Amino acid sequence: MENLLDIQDLHAVAGEKEILKGLNLKINKGETHVIMGPNGAGKSTTANVILNNPEYKKVSGKVVFEGEDISDLSTDKIAKEGVFMSFQSPVEIPGISTTNFLKYAKNKITDKPVKIFELRDQIQKYMEELNMNPKLIERNLNVGFSGGEKKKNEILQMLVLEPKLVILDETDSGLDVDAVRTVSKGIEMYKNEENAVLIITHNTRILENLKVDYVHILVDGKIVKTGDASLAQEIEENGYAQYK
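Structure (tokenized):
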């Protein structure tokens, strides 16, 4: 198994508050990992620190991606290396259509001019498979989209941009059953032996239709237990009390 992401003894703060307190996590190509934990445990912080969001500061430890220390790279460079993150609430961008956004993003990542007709065909195919409203593609990015449409749109971006590592941060929050199923389907369409997925969630619903390799329990800034998919079921039934 070839290692993709290796987080080593990571400590990070937001403002004055220490949130990650020695986090270790290894993800190999071809794997699907899940991080679960109570509110305030550091789940979203983990995602933001991997992508070097300036609101969070690494104090010590490092983030290694494909053998390269990316701890100090800027967020756009980390994205270019092949890390994609889906947010809890995707931003609206007036004045740029979803097609143009995808064309621009693909251009930036590959450093090659994008063939617009090929891109349109690819987008259309994925939208059909994800059961998305075809009109969304010409509308301004996420403007006036429902919560479910925004999430589907992010899954569409993930499929078109073909990153090496996808981080889904609470992608299932507030979604109805059909939208959750679409997100799960998109993840299955994306997954192969060369890439990996990290799902951050407090809800096991999104895991029902996915093959999950590892579940990690994050409590108070550290991973306190790692297991297989059955660990998520155990948390669903018993909560986090025994790990606090």
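DSSP finds seven helices and twelve strands in the chain. The first helix runs from residue 43 to 50.
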